[in-house]
Hints:
This protein has helices at 3-17, 91-108, and strands at 22-24, 30-32, 35-38, 57-66, 74-85, 111-112, 115-117, 122-125, 133-144. The chain is α+β, with helices and mostly antiparallel strands. Strands 3, 4, 5, 6, 7, 8 and 9 form a seven-stranded mixed sheet that branches. Strands 1-2 form a two-stranded antiparallel ribbon. A hairpin with a 7-residue loop joins strand 8 (122-125) and strand 9 (133-144). It is 21% helix and 34% strand.
Amino acid sequence: MTFRNLEDALLKEVGVILKDMQSLTADDNKSVGFHGYLHELPIMKSDEDDEEKLFPFYIIRIAEGTTADDNDCWHVSADIILGVHEMESGGHQHILTAIQRIVDRFASVPALGAFRADQNMTWQAGDEDTYPYYYGAVSITFSVPKANRRSVYG
């Protein structure tokens, strides 16, 4: 198992968790589900690219990992960053609902393939007025298997 395997599995799973959430886009069209990205939003390559098309989104970002000793697995920190564009009221509620779904999923069923979510999750909803954009994040540490130490490498 690699850290990239965790990143890919988390990208897929969060997409499933948020697949039926609805919001309104900047042009008042209904959007169902969230767009998922690894590490960052895509770069806009021309002036004609519309950043509004990125919303609603979630970004999976693997932040860091630690291990205590030879017998300990990796403890890998993953951040899930959420963003919605909502012209009508309810953007903050969309973020809170998305956060609730994510933390409930990993609190009730911590397994994600070979990975296991720790129960000391943290989350945060944006507290500044950024209308019509609303943001939030969930941080989860996952236990990730690591290779056994060998006496001779190669």
